[in-house]
Structure formats: structure tokens, C-alpha cells
Amino acid sequence: MTEDNKKHRILWILCLCQIGAMLIWYNFAAVIPILRTEWSISNDQAGALLSVFQLGYVIAVIFTGWLTDKYGGRLIFALSAIETGLAGLGFIFFADNYQSALLWRTLAGLGQGGLYIPGIHILSTWYPGQERGRIIGIFTCSTVFAYAGAYYLASALAVAYSWQTGMFWTTIWAFPAAVAVFFLVTEKQTPAIAVPLVKAEKKSSLTLSSKAFWLIIVGYVGHMWELYAFWGWLGAYMTYAFTLHGYETSVAIGYGGGIAAACTAMGGISPGLGGWVSDRYGRCLSATTLMLISGCCALIFGWLAEFSLWLLIIVGLVYGFFIVADSAIYKAGLTELVPAHAMGSALGLQSVLGFGITVITPRLFGLIVDNYSWGWAFSFLAIGPFLGVICMLLLRNHPESWQMANGKR
């Protein structure tokens, strides 16, 4: 097998396995309308359950970046997939109220923290910098398909059978994913240390303290401020919209979950396209354009439920495409700003801070819905992309940005 064939095979195995292992991410969000009634929980508490999952993820990525540098991405991915699958089953069989759900969703989030970063690390050993925007974009697409699949499968099965059934069939695939990655994926041993260690350490130190490094980190934080609150609350918002227009609750849950899945699935191709555009036209310019569109969608999306379902769905599909289109750009740009030996740790730090903000925003979103409206809650999300735009414009004028995408800023 040629090297090109081998690296493409590894890419597609990782994508398929990440879909299987990450279906658990939004299976809870898909059944929020059912559990909110069954367990008598508020939007604030539902937001907290979304947030503790993100908290578990953040705690894990503090360590998984470093562990990936030390032990390799393959092992960390496999162990993490097994842990998240076990925690998901624990939620299904043992969670029966808000308090017990907090524990199991936190544990499930811990396992998710060892999938995406190790996967990027593996791919970065196989693909050179000029291809990474597209490749990391494709890999990111697989996470979006997992999120969309969770909404579609879990909501449909929950309405037809039970919420436990919906969550079970979006959890169990984590186990075969772990086995496949461990036995079928390899990491390329790069001749990374043609650079003397002292020189490499100096570069790493300068990079971690540079303005360019932190601008791309904060840009990613702005992106994440909006993204996971949108995904986490999309199904509940769509269900609310259908209920508002006179649909029965069970029908509204089915339609709401299906439309949420479709809107999320629109992002299943956009990270790959966004990564490809950034390879061709520059990381900063591409991210700025995409975030501007996403931020404008946030300002209007939450106000549309009272007017027209068709307009709401159209804007939701557009929003779902653009909100995630820039995801790979920050990861690809960061891999070009740091040396290979520190890549896992740098990606881990980026994820800790980026996902750290997602611990806060879903909870705040729920509070705003309870106390004000869906319109104000979605408008609140626009803060993130507009902050990201400022960071990307500043980064574009920074000398170190020439290291990204072969000098295309």
C-alpha cells in the first residue's frame, strides 16, 4: 500500500470511528423535551446538564493533549471511547433524576475529551501543513455528522419507544470505534528532531508567549462561545417553535429533533469546505468572513419562531452551515504556529480554553430563556463570533501569521 493510500485510509477510519464514539454527545439534548417533563427539570437545569458534559470534556483535555504527546493518539482515543461508552450506559441504566444525571453526563464528557485532539495529532503526523486545513476540516465534519446523527436517531427512537432506547443506540457504537482505532490506525513516526532540542524548545517557548498564539486561541474561544450552546439548545428551540404553531407535543418533539438534525448536518460538509478555502485564501480572512455570517444569523434566529416555521427552518439551515464552517481553521492554524513536539499540548490548551467557555454558555442560555426569551438567548451568542472577528483581523496583521497556510493570511 502506498503512503498516500495509507494516510487516506487512516483518515476515513478515524472519521467513521469518531462518528461512532461521538454520537453520545447530543443524544441527551435530543431527549431534553421528554426528560424536562418526566423529571420536572427547568431550562436552567437542562442547561446545567449540557454544561457538565462540557466540563467533563474540559477536565479531560487538560491531560489528553499531554498524554497524546507522550503515549500517542491511538491508545488515548481507544481508552477514551471505551470510557465514554461505559458512562453513557451508566446514564441509561442508573440516571433517574437531575442529580444522578449530573454525575453520568460529567463522566461521559470525560471520555469525549480524548477523541478529537488525539485524532488531529495522528492526522498531523501524516499530512503536511499545506493540506491540514482541508484534512482537519474533513475530520471535523465527522464530529458534526455525529451530533446530527444523535439528534435524528435519539429523538425518533425516543418518541417511538423510550428515551433510554434513543440514548442506547447512540451510545453503543463507542465500543467498536475503540477497537477499530486501536487495531487499524497507526501514527507516522516523523523525523521531527532534525532540529536541535535547544532550538526547538526556544521556538516552543516563544510561540506560547506570542500574541499570534493567543489571538488564534481567543478567536477559537469566540467560535466556541456560540457553537455548542447553539447545538445543545437547537432541538428544544425547534420543538418549542412547532408547539407554538399548534403541533402536539409528541409530534413537535419528532419534527423538532428532525429539523435540528438537518440544521446540524448542514455543518457536516462546511468545516471541510472552510478548511479548503483557508488553505487557498488564508486562515484569518476565511475565519473572519465565516464568523461575520454566523454572528448575523445569531442576532435574528431566536426571534423567528413566532413568525414563520419555513423562514425559521431556512435560516436554521444557513446558520447550521456557517456556525461550524470555521472550526478547522483554528486547529490547522495552530499546528502551523507550534513545533511538532509540542503540538498535542498546544492543541490541548486550545481545547481547554475553547471548551471551557462551553461550560458557561449553555447554562447562561437556559437562564436567559427562563427569564427573557429565546430571541435574547440566541442574540447573546453573537458576542462570540464578533469577538473572534476582532482577533482574526488583529492576527492577520501580525508577522507570525505568515507561518499559516504557506503565508496566506
Descriptive report:
It is a single chain. The chain has 21 helices and no strands. It has one domain (3-184, 202-407): Growth Hormone, Chain: A, CATH 1.20.1250.20. The longest helix is centred in the middle third of the chain and has 34 residues, at 211-244. The radius of gyration is 20 Å and the shape is globular. Helix content is 80%, strand content 0%. The chain is an all-alpha fold and 409 residues long.
Structure characteristics:
single chain, 409 residues, mainly alpha, Growth Hormone, Chain: A, 21 helices, 0% strand, Hexuronate transporter, transport, MFS, transmembrane helix
Please give the alpha-carbon distance between the first and last residues.
36 Å
Report the portion of residues in β strands: under 5%
The portion of residues assigned to helices is over 70%
The CATH topology = Growth Hormone, Chain: A
Return residue spans where pLDDT drops below 50 for at least 5 consecutive residues: 191-206
- H/E element string? HHHHHHHHHHHHHHHHHHHHH
Cα-based radius of gyration, to the nearest Å: 20 Å
> Tell me, what's the shape?
globular
**Overall domain count:** 1
Number of helices: 21
Give the CATH level 1 class: Mainly Alpha
User: What is the β-strand count?
Assistant: 0
CATH superfamily: MFS general substrate transporter like domains
Oligomer: single chain
CATH architecture type:
Up-down Bundle
Instruction: Compute the average pLDDT.
Output: 87
Q: Profile the largest sheet.
A: none
Structural class category: mainly alpha
Keywords: Membrane, Transmembrane, Transmembrane helix, Transport
Domain Major facilitator superfamily (MFS) profile: 1-400
Main location: membrane
Membrane topology: Multi-pass membrane protein
